[in-house]
Amino acid sequence: MTETDHGVGEAVAARIERRWAILSIVIVGLLVGMATFIGIHQATMPQGRVETSDPRTLHLSGEFVESNLGSTLEADGSVTVRAIGQQYSFTPQCIVVPAETPITLRATSADVVHGLLIEGTNINTMLVPGYVADLPIRFKAPGEHVMPCQEFCGIGHQGMWGKVKVVDKAAFAKLAAARRRLTCVD
Ligand SMILES: [Cu+2]
């Protein structure tokens, strides 16, 4: 290998290195661009699926009338829980659900903005009057979880607490056979 060959080799290596450096900068730029676009797009566009409710008539008709609140066993074996938040309580105050079962929580507010947080889970949502919050949950094991309102909603906010009681799947099935809408309010 001559002195010139060595120089050529170095130039080729430098060119290839530069090409890869540019390519990696382009990839990083592309990813940052995508993340920025998706972030801005999601923040400025309405969600794909928005469900509304009328807080003035919640108690009169529709899904959130009092007799329809609580947990219900669906034909496919899943459970739907319907609840409302109002100053200063949740209805039902005590939600009973089975363990190891897909659950859909549907909740809304009858007056101002409330929060619904189930301790020990990733459930943490706002209850905004006029809108329905729809969240999937699944509990691994029976137990009790507190459910405070986590959004300041007025003077009685600190007293706005509910509870979620997770029972064994078979025990829930037995309860569900006896009643259409279940709660653990006693
Ligand atoms: Cu509240």
Short précis:
With about 190 residues, the chain is α+β, with helices and mostly antiparallel strands. The chain contains 2 helices and 10 strands; from the N terminus they run αββββββββββα.
Structural write-up:
By secondary structure, the protein is an alpha+beta fold. Helix content is about 30%, strand content about 30%. The protein has two helices and ten strands, in the order H-E-E-E-E-E-E-E-E-E-E-H. Strands 1, 2, 3, 5 and 8 form a five-stranded mixed beta sheet that branches. The longest helix is centred in the first third of the chain and has 42 residues, at about 5-45. It is elongated, with a radius of gyration of 27 Å. The N and C termini lie far apart (about 90 Å). About 20% of the residues are buried. The structure holds copper (II) ion. Copper (II) ion (CU) binds near residues 149 and 153.
Keywords summarizing the entry:
single chain, 186 residues, alpha+beta, 3-stranded mixed beta sheet, 10 strands, binds copper (II) ion
List the helices and strands and how they pair.
Layout: H1 3-44, E1 70-73, E2 79-86, E3 89-91, E4 94-98, E5 103-109, E6 114-117, E7 124-127, E8 133-137, E9 143-148, E10 161-167, H2 169-178
The structure holds copper (II) ion (CU).
